[in-house]
Structures are given as structure tokens and as C-alpha cells.
Amino acid sequence: MYPKFQEIKGGWLLYKSSGGWGSRKLTLIPPDESGYNAKNLKTATNGFKGVLYIAPLQIELDTTALPPESESFNEMPKEKCQRCGVSYPLLILTTHINTCVTSEDADQTSDEAEQTKQATCPICQKEMYLDVIEIHTSFCMGDSIQPLELNMSMEEPSTSGVYVPLTYTAEPSNAAKATSMSHDWKIEPDKNKAASLYTKEIIRQHETGKSLLMTMDVRMDKEDQDRELVAFYKQNGIEWACPVKCKLQGDAAIGEGVTRHFFSTVIQRLQHGFNFNMVAGRMIGHAFLHGGPRLAGVSQAIVHVLLGGSAETATVQIEDCPDHDIRETIKLLDGEAELSSEEYQAVLDLSLAWDLPGPTKENRKWLFERLLSHAVVFFYCLSFKF
User: Fold this and answer.
1) Which H or E run includes 79?
2) Which among 233, 239, 236, 235 is positioned nearest to 263, based on CA atoms?
3) What is the DSSP letter of 237?
């Protein structure tokens, strides 16, 4: 049944899998004094439910597939592959069909690989395909942001018989435009135009990347749709600026309208629905890059810190504090009214919890600002994960 197990030496142990949601772990099944037996395995696997894994202790198993002419397949029913003409057992024929490569396919693959080879431009040090690098290097400007202009005077005969000198101005190449654009957004004084230039530059850099497919079943209820959105944005190692393809299952709509609907749903759910800090930054940035709606209502103090500003210089308002109970406690220090014993104790408990001194007449205003800054900037900005 398992020919590769015939020569196992040096001992082996059995493991069972546990866990779920893409994080399975192997757990050792300890043998009895006499070794493994049916009773021991049945107890460890809850009646032989699940998969057992055999792990040799001193050798490494060869996991390469057996060739179709192996003696292990002699008694198995076989069928000939219609592409390569080799007979394979039915059990592995399906896998072979998906990976079968004929000589013609191999030649075509080698030609495609030749076309996709890249080289580095000696001027700007950027990689690009071989078939365009010669044209690129002819117009490459490196780090220069000045547009490329080529003025040539030539004579062209007119209908009146008089030669009229004409001046031609060559348009900047795509590479020159791209290089210029990468600098323009940094020096653009208009923040809206700078944001537009920035997104175009990032999208251009990833326009040849693998497209992201976002699907949503409109027939599901709101909770199931929320789970799909969260699962999509929890993915790691994703280039979020790559081209986006959106599909609504259960709806015949296609095109840019589906993409706008998807990002509108994402921002709406983020603003009025679920609250997951782990994926919030990805949702906001993804919608921003691909022209989706902006997230309104974010505190200016938090925006100031997220964009690299100092927490000490952030202007914080009492309305920026999202926790209602903490907000009401901090508001007790706003003004000159004397605190009752209960109010004093509430402020004292909050101050001590954040390693700040208790309230006094001298430090009342200072403590108000420190508590508010901690509640808005330090406490909530540190919880953002992008």
C-alpha cells in the first residue's frame, strides 16, 4: 500500500492535526509501552477521526511522485494521457493532466520566458523588459524632473513654393513622465492634487502586478458580508495598489460601478458598522488608492500623529475622545467648579491608571490636557495596526 515505508529504519512517531482557520498544528500521539495499537490510536483520534501523520525520526521521506512505470502501479487501472501518450494510473491521471507539458508547450513557455526577461537601466537603475529597455534608455533622464524637449529646425516645402522653417518639440517619453510624476506630488502645494498625483504614481508602479479579486455575495445577510470583508483585509503579503477586480455574486452588474459600490460599502461599514483596528488602515488606504470614498470624521489630532506629527503638538478636543465614560470623567476637570468626593475619586482612579498624579488646584488644567491627550492620541493611536 505504501511502498516508500518499506525501508523506514530508525523509528517513527505518529502525529495528529489540531486547530483550524489556517493555523493547524501537529500534536504528538505518545505510544504505549508496547508501541502503537488500535485502542491507543482510537482514543487519541476520537474514533479515528481526522488524519494521522507519520514522522520518521532519523531519515527523511522521499515525497517525489512515483514514475508511471513503477511496479507499485502494476495492478492499478490505467489510462493513456491524450496529450503526451503516456499511460498513468487513474488515481494520479487527474494531477498529471493539470501539469502535463508537451514539447510544443515547452517551446512556447521558453519563448514567453524570453520575452519577459528583464534588465536594469544603467541610468535610473530601474528594471524593465528587454524589448523596451533600448527605447527607454534613449529618453531616460535618471532623477531629473525637467521635461525632455528636443527642438529641431528643418525646412519643409510649402504650397507657395517658399520654404518655411518648422520647429518640432518632442513629447516626453512615458518613462520621463513617470519620473517627473514621482517628484511632482511631493512639491505640489495643493493637497488634493498632490494626493491625486501620489495615487497615480503608486498605481502605475503596480499596474503589471497580480490583480486583486474582491467578491461579495449580495444575497448574504449583513453579518456574513462583514465577515467576508474582514477576511479579505486580514490577508498578509498583499500589494494593495495592484489592479482591482470586483464581482458581486447574485447581481449582474459589472464594470467600474461595481468597484465604486464595493469601496463605498467598505467605508460605510468601517464608519458605521464593525470596528476592527487591525484592518481599518488597510481599508482606508485601499479605498484611497483606487479612488474610493474618503473616511470622514477622523479626529484631526489622530490624523496629525498618523501623518508623522508629534503627539505633543497635536491639538486635541474633548469631542475627540471616543470613550464616553472617560470623556465625562475628564470633563470634570474643565472649569473651576469644586469636585465632589465621588468626582474626585473618579478622576484620581483614571489618573493613577495612566501613571499621572491626582488632581489638585495647581495642576487641574495641566492634568485635564494630559488626560485628554492620553485618551485620544496615546491610547487610541497605538491601537492602530496597518
Assistant:
1) strand 78-80
2) 233
3) S
Which cell is 12 given?
517513527
- Whether 270 contacts 295, CB under 8 Å: yes
Q: Residue 121: how many CB atoms within 10 A of its CB? A: 15
pTM: 0.30
- Phi and psi of 92, rounded to 5°? -110, 0
d(CA 272, CA 238): 26
Query: Tens place of pLDDT for every residue, the chain, 386 residues?
Result: 456 666 677 777 888 877 655 566 788 888 887 788 888 888 877 776 777 888 887 777 777 777 777 777 777 888 888 888 888 888 778 777 877 766 555 555 555 555 566 777 655 667 776 666 655 554 454 443 333 333 333 333 333 333 333 333 334 444 444 444 445 777 777 877 887 888 888 888 888 888 878 777 778 777 777 777 777 777 777 787 888 787 777 776 666 777 777 777 777 766 665 555 556 667 777 777 777 766 655 677 777 776 677 767 777 788 777 677 888 888 888 888 888 888 899 999 888 888 888 888 888 889 988 888 888 776 655 555 44
